[in-house]
Amino acid sequence: MITDRTWKMAQVAKMYYIDNLTQEEIAEKINISRSTISRLLDAAKTSGIIEVKVHFPWQRVEELENALCKKYNLKAVRVLQATEDCSTDVILEGLGVLAARYFEEIVQPNTIVAITSGRGAFHTVNALSKQNLNLTVVQMMGAANCENPLIDGPELAQLMVSRMGGRYTYLQVPFLINPELYQTIYLEKPYREIVTLIKKADYAIIGVGSVDPVNSSLLRTGFSSEALAELTRCGAIGEICGQPFDRIGQLVTSNKIQRAVSIELKYLKGIPTVIGVAGELYKTESIRGSLLGRLLNVLITNQKVAEQLLNN
Q: Is the domain defined by 62-311 classed in CATH 3.40.50.2000?
């Protein structure tokens, strides 16, 4: 039900943002005080009547892109120009915009897209423009019980479908399970159906994670510090879909800790275009391992990481 106040908020918002009237002009026109106009605009933002989008002028470093393509034999690279005063969240948003624009350039209608969870994937999906491409979107990870389900749950697949049209499917199991149950899950019909779709996928959008005891996103999904330490002892330097890998991108396993229910790394290598979105400096060695292991063939990253990948 539209209340008088809701109508008034919408009226003031239109006059201010679309008709380009000043707050003083609006106040005079509808005979209320300027302070009331200001309060109505604030309330309109809070209630969702006004949706603010800032199209930041993201810049690329093409010289680094070309060098990375050549060194790691990649299909494509997008390098976000470093900005000293940008926070990590702003940088991740920029990476998401570059990844979304690249994906929109190559995606074809009626195709299959596999997607992980995580901040890189979220910012990519969130930056996609509205289209109707009738995609089949497959979430490659079980559901993590986290505060933000858009980042660590099947809702991300739903969001992508709302942007680009189609249908979605996901693993209807928890992300973490006990080691003794791990092999059983892989024999179940829901997992085998996901694998069948993954084998047919045309594109994948993934994040690259770290096993760093301070910054690892695995901690957010329920891994303990002891579990991360165990993975490190076994040679892990990074993870994709919760699956840990070593310095050359080979899977690392341990029977002493909980296991992540997600698609196995070997299936990524069969997908024609795998877009990795990762740009935090502490992930540099993880990104390098994923490149050496051919776990991705398109990289979206930050300038400082790109320089490190080229210098060593």
A: no
In the chain, domain spans: 4-47, 62-311
Determine phi and psi for 51, rounding to 5 degrees: -115, 115
Q: How confident is the model at residue 164 (pLDDT cuts 50, 70, 90)?
A: very high
CA 214 to chain centroid, in Å, comes to 20
- Residues 66-78: pLDDT tens digits? 999 999 999 999 9
Residue 161 φ/ψ, nearest 5 degrees: -65, -35
| Nearest alpha carbon to residue 175 among 152, 149, 198 | 152
Tokens linked to 70: 């050549």
pLDDT at 228: 87
Q: Which two tokens stand for residue 28?
A: 């005079």
CA distances, 127 to each of 54, 58, 59, 221, 233 (Å) = 12, 13, 16, 24, 38
- Under DSSP, the state recorded for 136 is E
Phi, psi for 172 (deg, rounded to 5): -90, 55
Model confidence at 254, pLDDT cuts 50, 70, 90, reads confident
**Whole-structure pTM value:** 0.79
Mean pLDDT is lowest, of 53-57, 232-236, 286-290, for 53-57
CATH 3.40.50.300 fits 4-47, yes or no: no
Per the DSSP assignment, residues forming a β-bridge with 206 are 276
CB atoms under 10 Å from CB of 41, counted, come to 20
Cα(268)–Cα(203) distance, integer angstroms: 10
CB 175 within 8 A of CB 141: yes
